[in-house]
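Fig. S4 source data, part A: sequence.
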Amino acid sequence: MRTIGLILLVLAVLTTPTLAVRDEVGDGRWFTLYTGDDKVLLRTGIFIQVGDRFLDSDNSLYQVYKVDEERLLAWARLVEDEGSLAAETQGLPGADNRKVAIYHTHSGESYEPSEGTASTDKVPGGVYGVGSELTNRLERDGEVEVTHSERTFFPYEGAYRRSRTEAINLVEQGDLDAIFDLHRDAAPKEEYYREIDDEMHLTQVMIVVGKQNPLNQTNEEFAWQLKEVADSMYPELVKGIFYAQGGYNQDLHPRGLLLEVGAHTNSRVEAEVGARAFADVIYVTLYGPLPRTSEVEQEIEDNRQLQPTADQRPGRSGGVFRGLFALVGLLGLGGTFYLFLSTGSWQGVKDTLSHFFRVEFKDLVSAVPWQKLHPRYIFGQLREIKAGADAPPGLRYFLEWIRDLFKPRNKV
């Protein structure tokens, strides 16, 4: 009996990290966490419980003391103001293998503005694209090998149990320096969106540490190291560190963490920019200074411009208008100089321009069918267009609206 009891005890300890925990609110909803004076501290889809802690972007540590589950509200009090984390942060001892792994427990998580849905239930969601950007950024110099798992773990219920098998496989492939479970949070857009130095438009990253695992302290130390490097490289990139009740399979590796990259209300492009910035943070934390592989790479790093080439922001309207005005001015000066050479005097230039505006320009203006440019004429022509049965519904509705708009009305 003593042997059987010992076996059961060992099994209980081994399976503790996989026990079901209510880890997220679900349905695109979120908890709002307040300070004691009712200032909003955090909005997150993680299910907040009494005892959870949150280290904010200023390194102030709060602990949850009250939760209203029905209204999805929680309150926390300041425990400690850490100031600078002051940890060993660049080129960590033991991170010598240059191997990192990424996977996605909640496989359907997506970014609604980009993909039209906050979550899928059968195919990989937008988080896989963000994971690919994180992977590509880490691998850019060819010195880091990243395994980005594209396995899915549907359905949502029990996903951590299924992803645990994949996490074990990734760890057992050998010698990982770190492993990340990449998610997206549920929160209002402004909770994660940041514009840094008028150049970087990105989502923040929140690091989540699970408290229910024996490697909790080493996971926490790695999270602190990442945040301190991020604070020095890209201030405001890391939203904070959330200490939750779950295990999140972080017992499998001393540098295993969960990342929340943006929320479902952010665009995937913004999340990808945040992921690329965080890839730089991971590299510097694990291996030291970023590699300078080319002049282009150096320019990107010096300017901290991380926007993808395919998604460059359009030029500022002021610059475009200045260019147009400059072009018009050059053409005007060139035309005036040409007339001066042709007529031989400034009086000749004046007479030529006067004749143009009195005669030729007047004839040109009179030839324009102004009545056909009137909005009523244009809409009248649209009203006569007939849409076939196979026309798109949107076109038919538009034409019906036009016909109704100009339908004769009875005068009262």
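Fig. S4 source data, part B ends here. The chain has three domains: 41-308, 318-368, 372-405.
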